[in-house]
Amino acid sequence: MKAEELQARVLHRDGLMLIIDKPAGLPCHAGPKGGPNLEALFDALRFGLPKPPSLAHRLDRDTSGCLVLGRHRKALAKLGRLFSGGGIDKTYWAIVEGGPAEESGQIDKPLSKLNKKSGWKMVVDPEGQPSQTDFRVLGRADGPNGGVTWLELKPLTGRTHQLRIHCSSMGWPILGDPVYGPVPGQLGGETGGVPLHLHARAVSVPLYPKRDPVSVTAEPPAHMLKALRACGYGG
After folding, report:
1. pLDDT along the chain (235 residues), means of 10
2. For residue 224, what are the CA distances in angstroms to 87, 167, 229?
3. Active site positions, annotated
4. CB-based burial of residue 73 (10 Å sphere; 0-12 exposed, 13-18 middle, 19+ buried)?
5. Is 235:226 a contact under the CB 8 Å cutoff?
6. Residue from 103, 107, 93, 124 nearest 196 by CA
7. How far is the C-alpha of 173 from the C-alpha of 98, rounded, in Å?
8. Are 161 and 122 in contact (CB under 8 A)?
9. What distance in Å separates the CA atoms of residue 9 and residue 4, rounded to the nearest whole number?
10. CA–CA distance, 152 with 64 (Å, rounded to integer)
11. pTM of the model
């Protein structure tokens, strides 16, 4: 990604923070083996400050949408307190295989990290960390294997892979999730290689005590549009 392409993804900018529309498929930071990552491009987001911004939180590599960055050390500390204290309202859109019978509800399942020689994953564990996610059905579409559902997800806690494992544990994995659900999609007869259908749709950050929260939305990525439209999304 070129500097101007990343700059075009800035959804909000002020003296303390940036909110950008993260593309799917690009990790936030370099892994053990290195490789392309979003942080390596942050010099293009200094906008006159002496240092580039830093991540105030993270999104999975294949998740798109609203990502909050702090522009300097004090801003990062303030944002960190808001995120850790649950003061930031986050809204995600997901397309799941199948779907809940209810139109809304809450998933309340503690989670812990399971380490294996082949890697790690999150699992539901009665002794794990408390984890809650509110969900609401925004639309449904029939399909050859039971259809798909467009969900609004609001994580009340911030566990790693929380939305993905919560949906999967309920029997309706997020479309295209290679870890917690089957890769083949339901819609249109896809047989594999479907990207993850999880998007950080909106974020609301109460950063300034005497002002309304900074509220930002990100348009869904192109790879989710077919399923969203089938579920009634009008764009």
Report:
1. 92 97 93 85 96 96 97 96 94 96 97 81 93 97 83 95 96 93 47 84 95 97 96 92
2. 28, 17, 9
3. 60
4. exposed
5. no
6. 93
7. 8
8. yes
9. 9
10. 15
11. 0.92
